[in-house]
Amino acid sequence: MSTDQNKALVQNFEELINSRNLETALTLFSPDYVDHTPAIGLPSGIEGVRAFHSMMFAAFPDRRVTSSEMIAEGDKVVHRLRGELTHKGAFMGMPPTGKHITWSCIDIWRIANGKFVEHWVEADMLGMMQQLGVLPSMATH
After folding, report:
1. Cβ(111)–Cβ(1) under 8 Å?
2. CATH second-level architecture of 3-132?
3. What mean pLDDT do residues 133-138 have?
């Protein structure tokens, strides 16, 4: 596949997740897919993807992500994105706070034969937890 086709696959996944069409989104993954940075306690395969997004939909029902940047080379796509969400359901043991937050992450996807086969992510979990009030924010001067 070309780098443009790989970027289109990532864009399609983002659109399917934003529309809460998880089952169709999961068809974009290879059966031997591996997530190298799964959320704590989740498996690294497709079932981990299902569990993660199901948890996020329940905790943040208005979650919407938008692309900030996408770069592709060879079989990899780097995708920087930003999410806006409101904490309306339990999340990682935390009761809902009702707080509206922004969140950012950088995904790296490896694609083979038109399917996601590997994934790495760097997410701003510190910023998310500070906005939710779980961790104190840094003092600004």
Report:
1. yes
2. Roll (3.10)
3. 84
| Cα dihedral 21→117→9→101 (10° resolution) | 60
Q: Tokens standing for 87? A: 């904490």
Query: What digits encode the pLDDT tens for the residues 60-105?
Result: 999 999 999 999 999 999 999 999 999 999 998 899 999 999 999 9
Total number of residues shown for the chain: 141
Q: Which residues of 93-102 are buried (b: 16+ CB within 10 A; e: fewer)?
A: eeeeeeeebe
88, 79, 89, 83: which is closest to 101 by C-alpha?
83
pTM: 0.90
Kindly write down the DSSP assignment for every residue of the chain, as one continuous string.
Answer: --HHHHHHHHHHHHHHHHTT-HHHHHTTEEEEEEESSPPTT--SSHHHHHHHHHHHHHH-TT-EEEEEEEEEETTEEEEEEEEEEE--S-BTTBPP---EEEEEEEEEEEEETTEEEEEEEEE-HHHHHHHHTSSPPPP--
